[in-house]
């Protein structure tokens, strides 16, 4: 049956991409095997870049925006999914080359779908969204590199000390909560003093000012961190690398502060520091399922609720402006039905 669908779409206007509200029908959707009734999407930093035009995210037009979606399967030509299944899609080039989640129904490929864990409602799965699932991929990457809350791989005793940069943002908030629940002593770096109480409520033990990490520093500094989750990049990441302790690891997630990396090789060759990249977009199905399984175990739902705001699709443009200005705290869920 054909339905009339509210969407946010990027189209070429006077030679430039421009995002606007559009009405589409089911017949306009791509011919993928699974039709999902979308309930929620989110606003990630990347969505902010796409909607404001501050970053070139879409690589073909017209494009339905929205990196994430969560909803219920309506129709399926795949044996893996049936009507009524609760599903989530994160990444897979949604909003880049594939139509995304800012619409009330979407057709997607079966291999993009992950089952929403029993522990989460659809809204909670989008409160996690790409940012939260990326934070969990980062924690898994640190664990893979040997990080444990009870000591470093080499047995040194201070393995609990971890740093999260861009802590009051989406990736940062979930990383702080998960690491605190796992037993780490989390230092949260933020540029917003008004978020200190919030970060403590998520489990941060210590808060440091963002500015403490933005000045150019020596290539090797005093060893502080057994591990770190960084969503800032640039000089901040260079300082984090220089302050990471012997055999520690840093999961590199983002570039909210810059895409360059003005660092030296010394921390790697003299301290054995590991720099691990996190790619949420093309993560394998098993990595995704593992991340969602661990989120169900290791993310405190009360803290998730405390960091989440639910907003209607009609407000998505102002929310996009706010996230690229670094003004969004925690996670924003978009109710695409409103
Ligand atoms: P948010 O905007 O929610 O969080 C980013 C945070 O970074 C802000 O809240 C702010 O934290 C801090 N920040 C912002 N601007 C600056 C600046 N100029 N200098 C230093 N810190 C700054 O975004 P998300 O959490 O959604 O995404 C974070 C980053 O991770 C983005 O770069 C995004 O593109 C990337 N990302 C990467 C993924 C991957 O697969 N690798 C997946 C998802 C996101 P505070 O106010 O606390 O200082």
Explain what you see.
The strands form three sheets. Strands 3, 5, 6, 7, 8, 15 and 16 form a seven-stranded mixed beta sheet that branches. The protein is globular, with a radius of gyration of 20 Å. The chain has helices at residues 45-52, 122-144, 170-181, 196-202, 234-243, 266-271, 285-298, 301-306, 316-324; strands at 4-13, 16-25, 34-42, 63-64, 68-76, 86-90, 105-108, 114-115, 161-164, 185-190, 206-209, 225-230, 244-252, 274-277, 308-312, 331-335. The longest helix is centred in the middle third of the chain and has 23 residues, at 122-144. The chain has two domains: 4-116 and 307-335, Alpha-Beta Complex (Quinone Oxidoreductase, Chain A, domain 1); 131-277, 3-Layer(aba) Sandwich (Rossmann fold). It has nine helices and 16 strands. Helix 2 packs across helix 3 (170-181). By secondary structure, it is α/β, with parallel strands linked by helices. The structure holds NADPH dihydro-nicotinamide-adenine-dinucleotide phosphate.
């Amino acid at each position: 049956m054909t339905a009339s669908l509210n969407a946010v779409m990027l189209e070429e206007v006077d030679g430039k991409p421009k995002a606007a509200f559009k009405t589409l029908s089911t017949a306009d959707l791509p011919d993928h095997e699974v039709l999902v009734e979308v309930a929620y999407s989110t606003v990630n930093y990347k969505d902010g870049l796409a909607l404001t035009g501050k970053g070139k995210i879409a690589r073909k037009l017209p494009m339905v925006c929205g990196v994430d979606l969560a909803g219920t399967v309506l129709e399926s030509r795949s044996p893996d999914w049936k009507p009524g299944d609760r599903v989530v899609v994160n990444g897979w080039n949604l909003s880049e080359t594939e139509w995304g989640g800012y619409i009330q129904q979407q057709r997607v490929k079966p291999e993009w779908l992950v089952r929403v864990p029993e522990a989460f409602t659809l809204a909670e799965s989008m409160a996690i969204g790409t940012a939260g699932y990326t934070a969990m991929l980062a924690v898994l990457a640190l664990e893979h590199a040997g990080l444990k809350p009870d000591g470093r791989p080499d047995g040194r005793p201070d393995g609990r000390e971890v740093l999260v940069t861009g802590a009051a943002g989406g990736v940062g908030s979930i990383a702080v909560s998960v690491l605190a629940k796992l037993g780490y002593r989390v230092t949260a770096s933020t540029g917003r003093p008004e978020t200190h109480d919030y970060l403590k409520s998520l489990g941060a033990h210590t808060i440091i000012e963002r500015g403490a990490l933005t000045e150019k520093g020596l290539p090797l500094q005093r060893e502080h961190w057994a591990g770190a989750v960084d969503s800032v990049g640039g000089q901040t990441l260079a300082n984090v690398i220089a302050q990471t302790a012997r055999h520690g690891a840093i999961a590199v997630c983002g570039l909210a502060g810059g895409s360059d990396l003005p660092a030296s090789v010394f921390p790697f060759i003299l301290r054995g520091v590991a720099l691990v990249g996190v790619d949420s977009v093309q993560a394998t199905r098993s990595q995704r399922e593992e991340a969602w399984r661990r989120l169900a175990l290791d993310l405190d739902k009360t803290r998730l609720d405390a960091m989440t705001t639910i907003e209607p699709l009609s407000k998505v443009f102002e929310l996009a402006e706010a996230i690229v200005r670094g003004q969004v705290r925690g996670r924003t869920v978009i109710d695409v039905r409103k």
